[in-house]
Amino acid sequence: MARYTPMMEQYLAVKAGVPDALLFFRLGDFYELFFEDAVTASRELEITLTGREGGIGEKIPMCGVPHHSSENYVLRLVEKGYKVAICEQVEDAGAAKGIVKREVVRVVTPGTVMESKVLQEKANRYLASCVETNGRYGLSFCDLTTGELLVVEHDTEQAMLDEMLRHQPAEIVVPAGEKDALYAQTMKDLLGSVLTSGEEKTHRTDRATEVLLAHFEVISLDSFGLARNPLAVGAAGMLLAYLEVTQKRNLHHLKMPAYITSDEYMTLDSFTRRNLELVETLRDKGKHGSLLGLLDETVTAMGGRLLRRYVERPLANKARIEERLDAVQELHGQLMLRADMRQLLDQVYDLERLVARVAYGSANARDLLAIASSLAVLPALKGRLLSAEAGLLRQIADKIQDFDELVDLVQRAIVDEPPVSVKDGNVIRDGYHDHLDTLKTASRDGKRWIATLEQEEREKTGIRSLKVGFNKVFGYYLEVSKANIQHVPATYERKQTLTNGERYITPELKEKESLILEAEEKMVDLEYQLFVEVRDEVAGALGQIQQAAEAIAQIDCLQSLATVSANRRYTRPQIETDDRLLITEGRHPVVEAMLKGEPFVANDTLLDNSSHQIALITGPNMAGKSTYMRQVALIVLLAQMGCFVPADHAEIGIVDRVFTRIGASDDLAGGQSTFMVEMVELANILHHATRKSLIILDEIGRGTSTFDGISIAQAVVEFLHENPKVGAKTLFATHYHELTRFTESFAGVRHYSTHVQEKGDTIVFLRKILPQAADRSYGIQVAKLAGLPNDVLARAREILAELEEGQVQSAVSPQAEMVREAAPTYEVKTEAAPEVKAAVEPQTSAQSSQLSLFAAEHPVVEELRGLDVMRLTPLDAMNMLYQLHQKARGSE
Asked: Domain DNA mismatch repair proteins mutS family, which positions (predicted)?
């Protein structure tokens, strides 16, 4: 029976250990893929699929990529959602007996990419894990490139999904056997992340605890503060076990798990982050046009990543907010200090990711120089911080240690412009190591002797075209053309025959060659050994460098907020402990920045939990209602981030959550209509809002019929106003201007409208919010501005006039009359009485355009005409309907 060759047997054995990954199997200068892996890779990478004899009598599918350019191919596959296992030769081919030993040295997955080519400089790339038990969730997030490790627990699926959406993981690990669980599929569908099975049983609390304690070398979960969070422990332990299996190397740069606390931060669900466009726009998912895009004046990649976390997690602790504001105020007021900070920060590389590569064992000599040059800036940066008065700036300075010895070591050891590869030599500086210098001298002297050999041999032999050359196969040689072969001395030994000449060697040349090559081989090995020693010294200071990197990120964020505040004329908000929001001449930060010189119309805001709890805002589309409401929310967010705000004056009572229900969109994939999406978001708000929350509602009830919509909108207002457990500060924009009549008697409701100036049959939006209710929606005028045909606009005005006069039944166009007269008569048979013919004829012009529900003379009709329906409560309407029903039956 045919068997595979020994090499293919080895391949299959290795592949069995990584069945869910594409195996890059090292053969010489290529990585080869076989069987289904080859078919998949050739398709995804668009490379040639070939075949190879494998000992079974038929060719095995095969494709391959060059070793020196394999990184690009690996990353392309990972970006498409695949895992790639890298299998290397782990013993010297010359010393091997039989097949060279090969092992998987790393599995590259979407969540474990370390290569900078695919990493966003100012965004984290998270690997996540999730453990579910009885509707409760434990989550863990790790950015392998920075060492950040976070954990949290949540009681509901929605809270879990919000957390996942905030971190946007590239890959999510779930317990073995749970990839098809409902919660796992929900995460996958919502996030588009790659779903991966964790190692068997590593999510169990006992096993996860063992993994965490062993890795971080501690004796108790109390070291992490996770003794009472078994699900968080399970998620973190499973994630760490997955990293150890896939990465197969030192992970000491991972920081101890940090629990994501909720009481210290404002809570923002996924709807709010999306609707307020905090980190990306709704239109193109880009950063430009978002709040983060406006605020990002950071100089370092570390600062950029931290600023994103500032935006997504504003503070809810007054002391910490004031601490940040003090620092921002000092930097805001001292232009020279801010300029000095930016100039120094501009010299700092991404220390977080650089030291992670050092610990990971993948840092090269250029990375070490970047670390050293960054650390060399710190003394000057620390000195400027210590001269500041703000307490937070001085605290940041205290986190920065002295790295003079480490900087000196790297700068003495590494040449100024080292090559990318650390295994090809030319990395270590002259004078750093005596024996290396001796080898370098021997190599240089030998090469110098060979360089003079050509001229000496030409003079000795008289062969003017004689050349000295070198290649890896034959080493050094003397090349003579065929025309001069008769002049070659007898001491020359023929080595190779060419078409146009001969190549020779001499005993002395081979001796020098041996010395040179031996020196170079020893030199390369020694240089790599010395480089690793220097890299290990840097790794020894890993914790201190990570702490300094955190300090740099903080100061970069603070100077960014100060720079934006100074450039855009923002003012420091007053942070209060009461429930009031008072904003004078507030502006929308992003819209104002986009206007490019055109003045922004500012507006005031007053909200509290008593007399100004709900601001009911009416007015036409395009008049500025949504912009106004968003700007209030963004001003609150900016204030609680510790940033100045776009207003003349702002008093901000700390808000625990901001909720938004803005815009309309379908969720077709989830089977939800626009109205259903609207109701789901509204339900989330009404279930979770508190008296310290801020709610932004835009056009509640517009996705259904008019009466249904008004009913829902009024019920929502009543719920927010009357329910003592909610009582949240609310901005409620609506086109149902009739709603203002229902809420006139509510003590906490205040009516506002957007100011519109009418000019004939058109309108001008003045963008000003007035303390009065609107009596019209100006829909037709807005439609005119949008460019609807004049015929449509004219007919709409006619219908509107008739509707406002209550003449619904006569609202039929002349064109409809013509159609009616030309329409045929239909004969309909009913199933109950097939012998009876009912003639259904179109209405004539003399008839009503709509069949009347009641005879015109019926007393119930007269009573209906006298009702003011818009002033009826739901209970009154039910009672009235019952009375009318009884009267109708009595008259029959």
From this structure: 693-709
Give CA–CA dist 294/314, Å, rounded. Answer: 16
- How much of the chain exceeds pLDDT 90, in percent? 57
Is 431 annotated as ligand-binding?
A: no
111 within 8 A of 126, measured Cβ to Cβ: yes
357: three-class secondary structure by DSSP: helix
Q: Sorting pLDDT into bands at 50, 70 and 90, what band is 804?
A: low
870 annotated to a ligand binding site: no
pLDDT in tens, 442-500: 888 888 888 888 889 999 999 999 999 888 778 889 999 998 998 999 889 998 888 88
SS3 748: coil
Q: How many domains does the chain have?
A: 7
CB atoms within 10 A of CB 313: 18
Q: Does 529 reside within a domain?
A: no
Q: How confident is the model at residue 823 (pLDDT cuts 50, 70, 90)?
A: very low
Q: Which of 754, 777, 800 is the last residue of a domain?
A: 777
The domain that holds 141 is classified in CATH as 3.30.420.110
**Could you give the dihedral angle defined by the CA atoms of residues 233, 235, 240 and 246, in that order, rounded to the nearest 10 degrees?**
160
Q: Are 629 and 733 in contact (CB under 8 A)?
A: yes
How many angstroms separate the Cα of 188 from the Cα of each of 181, 198, 201? 11, 15, 22
In this structure, what CATH number is given to the domain that contains residue 512? Answer: 1.10.1420.10
Mapped onto helix, strand or coil, the DSSP state of residue 332 is: helix
* C-alpha–C-alpha distance, residues 231 and 208, integer Å: 10
β-sheet with 50-53: strand ranges across: 50-53, 59-66, 30-34, 22-27, 84-89, 102-108
229 annotated to bind ligand? no
Q: Are residues 557 and 612 in the same domain?
A: no
Are 615 and 630 found together in one domain? yes
192 and 127 part of one domain: yes
Closest CA relative to residue 353, chosen from 126, 546, 108: 546
Q: Is 625 annotated as a binding residue?
A: yes
Q: Is 620 annotated as a binding residue?
A: yes
Report the predicted TM-score, pTM, of the whole model to 2 decimal places: 0.82
Spell out the alpha helix ranges (H) of 602-702.
625-641, 674-688
* Residue 256 CB-density burial (10 A; 0-12 exposed, 13-18 middle, 19+ buried): middle
Q: 741: which strand partners?
A: none
Spatial distance between the Cα atoms of 118 and 125, rounded to a whole number of angstroms: 10
Q: Which of 108, 131, 159 is the last residue of a domain?
A: 108
Read off the amino acid at residue 637. Answer: L
Q: Which residues of 492-508 are buried (b: 16+ CB within 10 A; e: fewer)?
A: beebeeeeebbbbbbee
Contact between residue 24 and residue 74 where contact means Cβ atoms under 8 Å apart = yes
Three-state secondary-structure class, residue 282 = coil
Amino acid at 434: D
Q: Are residues 562 and 447 in the same domain?
A: no
Give residue 21's domain range: 6-108
Q: Tell me whether residue 623 is annotated as binding.
A: yes
Model confidence over 319-333: pLDDT tens digits?
A: 999 999 999 999 999
Residue 47: its pLDDT value, please?
94
Is 454:477 a contact under the CB 8 Å cutoff? Answer: no
Confidence of residue 515 (pLDDT cuts 50, 70, 90): confident
- Same domain for 864 and 817: no
Distance CA(658)–CA(646), nearest Å, equals 18
Query: What's the distance, Cα to Cα, between the start and end of the chain in Å?
Result: 97
Q: What is the pLDDT of residues 65-104, one digit of tens each?
A: 999 889 999 999 999 999 999 999 988 776 777 788 999 9
3-state SS, one letter per residue, for 89-138: ECCCCCCCCCCCCEEEEEEECCCCCCCHHHCCCCCCCCEEEEEEECCEEE
DSSP string of 656-720, one letter each residue: SEEEEE-S---BTTTTB-HHHHHHHHHHHHHHH--TT-EEEEESTTTTS-HHHHHHHHHHHHHHH
